[in-house]
Design a protein that fits this description.
By secondary structure, the chain is an alpha/beta fold. 32% of the residues lie in helices and 21% in strands.
Length: 314
């Protein structure tokens, strides 16, 4: 499915298009301002598993009833102000959000995302080098924590953006008790047969690197009998969920895509059903995407066969 824009708006978007999806990290003051003004409860929670402790940003909605929990996976820029602001926005729609800082312990002096400089590409390099097995273990810790939140209703979904979009898809292949997985401009895993939750994709029309992988993923999901519903937003660039609400965005298609995608996301979360899977056992099979090697969201990652050593915690 592709959502199109009026011709006049297309022309304006083409004339003004710049790579807003890769805006510098220090340009997110607007996100922090919105986050600071939020009336919702924010807290940082340490999530322990094995000998590792991951810090998570948790946001609660102001509601009377129990709510679904969304595990939010940040972009390749780490747990940025925008990632936390996005978590807060989702909480504003009635959902509990747990956003783990997957850079916990890998930053300077054993810190996390906030320990990195606000400029430069140190965060990007660090996120790209994360061991996929460690990422899944961290996300398992977040999901296990979500299941024990007294205010939660038992429904857990995962939503990821950019690099996190690919990790959301991969986590859906790993974790068996998810109610849904939401993939924002991320690629699918090579083996999709272990997926049990429906997967919903959100893609940018002007993002051929990631968009080129969607047909192969669609074919693989269909062959495996899995639900996969990708939507492409015409004229938008990679990272449109962030760029679309950035006051400095000059591609109108990003804002249109962001608004439409957010509405779709909220609707799908409200409609999702509890997972029928009680266990989290993993298994392997043989249906794979036809693309030779899925493109990584935002930036290439290191080979999965070269895990990064865990840095010492503070």
């Amino acid at each position: 499915m592709t959502i199109t824009l009026p011709n006049a708006l297309k022309l304006l978007a083409a004339a003004l298009l710049v790579p807003a999806g890769v805006a510098p990290l220090h340009a997110q003051d607007w996100a922090k301002t919105r986050l600071d003004a939020s009336p919702r409860h924010h807290e940082y929670v340490p999530l322990k598993h094995g000998d590792r402790t991951v810090q998570a940003f948790v946001v609660y909605p102001e509601v009377k009833t129990k709510a679904p929990v969304i595990i939010l996976i940040h972009e390749i820029f780490g747990l940025s102000d925008w990632a936390k602001e996005m978590a807060d926005e989702l909480a504003g729609q009635g959902f509990i959000v747990v956003a783990p800082d997957l850079l916990t312990g890998f930053g300077p002096n054993g810190g996390g995302s906030d320990a990195f400089p606000s400029t430069g590409d140190d965060r990007t390099k660090a996120v790209s080098g994360l061991d996929p097995a460690v990422v899944n273990a961290d996300l398992d810790a977040a999901a296990d924590y979500a299941k024990k939140i007294p205010a939660a209703n038992g429904k857990i979904a995962v939503a990821g953006f950019c690099w996190g979009g690919s990790k959301s898809f991969a986590f859906a292949a790993h974790r068996k008790d998810l109610s849904a997985a939401f993939v924002f401009y991320g690629t699918g895993p090579s083996d999709v047969t272990t997926i049990t939750a429906p997967v919903y994709g959100f893609y940018a029309g002007n993002d051929a690197r990631v968009g080129a992988t969607v047909p192969g993923t669609t074919e693989a999901m269909k062959a495996a009998g899995k639900k996969y519903d990708p939507v492409t937003y015409d004229g938008a660039g990679h990272g449109f969920m962030r760029a679309g609400e950035d006051p400095n965005n000059n591609n109108p298609a990003n804002k249109t895509a962001r608004d439409q995608a957010f509405t779709r996301l909220v609707t799908l979360i409200k409609e999702m059903k509890s997972s029928p899977m009680a266990s989290n056992a993993s298994h392997k099979s043989s249906v794979v995407a036809k693309s030779t090697k899925p493109a990584m969201s935002c930036h290439d990652e290191k080979s999965a066969g070269m895990p990064t050593e865990m840095a010492a915690m503070k």
